[in-house]
Amino acid sequence: MTAMDFNNRLISMENRLERFALSLTANREEAKDLLQETYFKALSSKDKFIEFTNFEAWAYTIMKNTFINNYRKAVRQNTIVDTTKDLYYLNNSKESGHVKPDSAVQHKEINKHIDNLQDELKVPFLMHTQGYKYKEIADKLDLKIGTVKSRIFFTRKKLMESLTDYR
User: Fold this and answer.
1) CATH of region 101-162
2) The pLDDT value given to residue 107
3) Tag placement on the chain: N or C end, fewer CB within 10 Å?
C-alpha cells in the first residue's frame, strides 16, 4: 500500500473515528485530542500495518488502546502515596469541617425531593445510599432483589428529572 493510499484510507475514516472517540471520552474536546493522537500513532507506525488485513479494525484498535493507556496514566497520576509516619495525609480528613453555604442549600433541596417520594421508593433508595447491598435491602424489606434494583433505578430517574439544576 502506498503512503498516499494509506493516508487517504485514514482520512476517509475521520467521521467514524471521531464518533468512536466521542463514545469513549464523552467529551468533544477530549475526543478531538484522542483522534489527533490516533492519527499520529497510525501515521508513525504505518510500516507495522500488514497489507490485506482489516485497516479499519487496526485504526480502531489504535484508538481504543490509546484511550485505555491515557486512562491508566491519569489514574496513576491521581494516586496518592503517603510515606509520612502514621499515614498522616491519608488519615487526615480533606474537609476542614466547614460546610459551604451553597452545598448546605443543595443538600437540603435534594433531601426535600427525597422526602417527597413514596415510601416504597424512598426506603430502598435511602438504604442503598447508606451503604446497604441490594441483597441486604431485599432481605430487610422482604422483597425480591430485582424489585429492589428497579425501585432504586426508578428513584434515581425521578430525582434526576426533578433536580434538573444539578445535572
Assistant:
1) 1.10.10.10
2) 77
3) C
Question: pTM higher than 0.85, yes or no?
Answer: no
**Cβ atoms of 55 and 84 closer than 8 Å:** no
Task: Kindly state the cell numbers that stand for 35.
Answer: 483522534
Q: Which residues contact 112 (CB under 8 A, 6 or more apart)?
A: none
pLDDT of residue 95: 55
Question: What are the boundaries of each domain within the chain?
Answer: 3-77, 101-162
Q: Which amino acid is at 163?
A: L
- For 119-165, the pLDDT digits (tens) are 898 899 999 988 889 999 999 999 999 999 999 999 988 888 887 77
Phi, psi (deg, nearest 5) at residue 97:
95, -10
| CATH fold match for the domains 3-77 and 101-162 | no
CB burial of residue 155 (10 Å; 0-12, 13-18, 19+):
buried
Show the cell assigned to 148.
429492589
**Which residue blocks in the chain are alpha helix, DSSP H?**
3-12, 14-25, 28-44, 55-77, 88-91, 101-115, 119-129, 134-141, 145-162
**Fold classified for 3-77:** Rna Polymerase Sigma Factor; Chain: A (1.10.1740)
